[in-house]
UniProtKB/TrEMBL annotation:
Domain spans labelled Dipeptidylpeptidase IV N-terminal: 195-283
UniProt superkingdom: Bacteria
Name of the molecule in the record: Peptidase S9 prolyl oligopeptidase catalytic domain-containing protein
Limits of the Peptidase S9 prolyl oligopeptidase catalytic domain: 476-681
Pfam family, one: DPPIV_N
Gene3D superfamilies: alpha/beta hydrolase, TolB, C-terminal domain
Entry GO MF terms: serine-type endopeptidase activity
Length: 693
């Protein structure tokens, strides 16, 4: 529940007296303890109103009774700084979007577990549901005249089969019918076994009514954007071989008058995120020519509203643009990009001239320090503003605002002022280390325990990000704070392969992963030991997904770590390519071989091939419903370690997909079990603490 506090002046003196009389041992811990995760709040999705005077955003809090991260809509008046809830208590909601005239607000919610799209009239606060939705609606967007709303929704298809099942007698209890699967991708992480059908685009009157389906077929179609009141832009891959080409997509124009559909792009490579200018004369979009590499960076393009005259904007820009928004006059395009651990927003005009507007976006979650955030543009003239999620090392994301000229940036919220100022938080230092492999600069951050002294006595945790094409940054993370609070110097690193440092740096691991990113990580550990930040006998390593495979890879190459915890790892690239939800991507882009014709290409960089080299006590952990790095990946390593007499344990997280810590209690369980495993093998604790729970 969102925290509300009533300060009673009459209690102040009594509280002070009680605190003075209390025994020191009875005082609450000033460390970031496990239960503090339930106290955290953070902001996402800030949206500026069309007049530039109000921001609505999603305020996230941890509901201890339901064990859920819950979102609520709040508003900020930019003239008075009034900060208020928009809906009543208990009204979870998300994805707010202003109507073009700012009189209404579209948002998502769920009533009795049923997904809804609702609209609120801002002058009265009254809300209504747009329709009854058999499946969850998504990607909702207003038409330019505010009369219609486009959205996506899954449409069930015909179930494949080769025999018609018999009808059981009334009251009989027969087995469930068999399930026939004939798609190449039949499972996906977070969705489980896929229902037959496809995502399509619908339109519904903004006053509510019956949704009208406007795209059809067996291919998923999404990302609706209004070119004008009668034309939608959408993106998808309608090719016959789409299952074997997971990176392909085109942009299409759909005429609502007759539902005719016309492709506007046709290259070999993805074209997506159509973003029309306010007058509909120009379409911005993202894409690239597919060269079958493991990592390929977005390029920013514009074309005329009819699909002609396509050209690249800012071809020399070193970053990878995303999340585009137009200025009110259609002369400037804003975009988000990763840059050395942080997110930034820049603007580009139609001549390709770029200006940086704001940097330091981040913090879309409280778990790990990934660079993730959002922004929106609203208003015109002197009221033109950008609202964004501001990231910090010492607190979760807040709502901030800045002029579109980059001036007068201001943080508007302080969502954890009731908790964090009273705790001893870890101090974060930035590191820039030279890799032992080739001298490349590697960026990292280290969280120092509250009582830290550079005396060489502290244990160290190397925490490795997933992806592998992702980026950590100087952002608050509950996992990092928990490790530091328990006395671990905790370092998190962007080794080669990380994004935000240019395409060439990310491409360093193409056909070489895991590989010399190992040298980058070890160079960081060497540096911290040399600084006397850590005891070389008390080193530990962990990471999830891509960080999981790197953890497993590390223990096949060195015995310097006292213990390791590989979370949701890839252990065998061959089984990954043949059974994971992104198996086709692994085969076609990351390995570029077939497992049956060249198994060695998969096995030579699989930790399972070197499991007999491991001596480090290694914990493995995975979600029971993880289809990105399925449980049998972790199980292969666990079994191999057991067969070779290495201390190991296997933790299965119930009801969890790849996002293993999606609920607050699971985030606690993950970090505390990892620390319990490390404590069991900490040389400084041998004989002192045999409790691994």
């Amino acid at each position: 529940m969102t925290k509300h506090f009533l300060v009673l002046a009459g209690l102040t003196a009594a509280f002070a007296m009680g605190a003075a009389l209390a025994k020191e041992d009875d005082a609450p811990s000033k460390r970031f303890t496990a239960e503090r995760i339930f106290d955290m709040e953070y902001a996402t999705g800030p949206q500026v109103s069309p007049d530039g005077r109000t921001i609505v955003y999603v305020r996230h809090s941890m509901d201890k009774m339901t064990d859920r991260d819950t979102g609520h809509l709040w508003t900020i008046d930019l003239e008075t700084d009034a900060h208020r809830p928009l809906l009543g208590a208990g009204s979870g909601a998300g994805a707010p979007r202003w109507s073009p005239d700012g009189s209404r607000l579209l948002y998502t919610t769920a009533t009795d577990g049923k997904p809804e799209l609702r609209v609120m009239y801002m002058d009265t606060g009254l809300t209504y549901s747009l329709s009854q939705f058999p499946k969850p609606p998504g990607a909702a967007t207003w038409s330019p005249d505010g009369k219609s709303i486009a959205f996506t929704m899954f449409v069930p298809g015909e179930k494949p089969g080769f025999a018609k099942p018999l009808t059981p007698p009334e009251g009989a209890k027969w087995a469930d019918p068999v399930k026939v699967i004939d798609d190449l991708t039949f499972r996906f992480d977070g969705a489980g076994y896929l229902e037959d059908g496809a995502t399509q685009v619908f339109v519904v009157p903004a006053d509510g009514g019956t949704p009208r389906q406007v795209t059809y077929g067996d291919a998923d179609i999404g990302q609706p954007a209004w070119l004008d009141n009668n034309t939608l832009l959408v993106s998808g891959n309608t090719a016959e071989d789409r299952d074997d080409d997971p990176n392909e997509s085109e942009i299409y124009a759909v005429k609502l008058s007759d539902l005719s559909i016309r492709p506007l792009t046709d290259r070999n490579g993805p074209d997506y995120s159509p973003t029309p200018s306010p007058d509909g004369k120009t379409i911005a979009y993202l894409g690239y020519d597919d060269e079958l590499k493991a990592y390929q960076q977005n390029h920013l393009y514009v074309m005329d509203g009819d699909g002609r005259n396509s050209r690249e904007l800012a071809a020399d820009f070193a970053g990878s643009p995303s999340n585009m928004s137009w200025s009110d006059d259609g002369k400037t395009l804003y975009f988000l990009f990763e840059e050395h651990g942080v997110l930034s927003v820049s603007s580009v005009d139609l001549r390709g001239r770029i200006s940086e507007v704001v940097t330091g976006l981040g913090g879309a979650s409280i778990g790990r320090p990934y660079a993730d955030g959002s922004y929106s543009v609203g208003g015109s003239g002197r009221h033109a503003k950008i609202a964004y999620t501001a990231g910090f090392t010492d607190r979760p994301a807040e709502v901030a605002v800045v002029g579109t000229n980059g001036k007068n940036a201001k943080v508007l919220t302080d969502l954890n002022a009731d908790v964090l100022p009273y705790l001893d938080m870890a101090r974060i230092e930035e590191l820039k280390i030279t890799s032992s492999h080739d001298g490349q600069e590697i960026e990292a951050w280290v969280a120092l325990p509250p009582d830290f002294k550079a005396d060489g006595s502290f244990p160290l945790i190397l925490e490795i990000h997933g992806g592998p094409f992702a980026m950590y940054g100087p952002f608050f993370a509950s996992e990092i704070q928990r490790y530091a609070a328990e006395g671990y110097v905790t370092v998190y690193v962007n080794p080669r392969g990380s994004t935000g440092y240019g395409e060439a740096f990310a491409q360093e691991i193409d056909l070489a992963y895991p590989g010399h990113d190992y040298d980058d990580l070890m160079s960081v550990v060497d540096d911290l030991v040399a600084r006397n930040y850590a005891d070389p006998q008390r080193l530990f390593v962990t990471g999830g997904s891509g960080g999981g495979i790197l953890t497993a890879w590390i223990v096949t190459k060195t015995d310097r770590f006292a213990a390791a915890a590989a979370v949701k790892p890839v252990i065998n690239w061959m089984t990954m390519a043949l059974s994971a939800d992104i198996g086709q991507f692994v085969r076609k882009y990351w390995v570029r071989e077939d497992p049956w014709s060249n198994p060695e290409a998969f096995l030579e960089r699989s930790p399972i091939s070197y499991v007999d080299k491991v001596v480090t006590p290694t914990l493995v952990m995975v979600g029971e419903e993880d289809w990105r790095t399925p449980a049998w990946e972790a199980e292969q390593f666990y079994t191999g370690l057991k067969m070779n007499g290495v201390d190991t344990a296997y933790i299965r997280v119930p009801d969890s997909p790849h996002h293993i810590a999606g609920r607050p209690s699971l985030l606690i369980a993950k970090t505390d079990n990892i620390m319990g495993w490390f404590a069991k093998y900490d040389p400084a604790k041998q004989g002192k603490n045999d409790d691994t729970e």
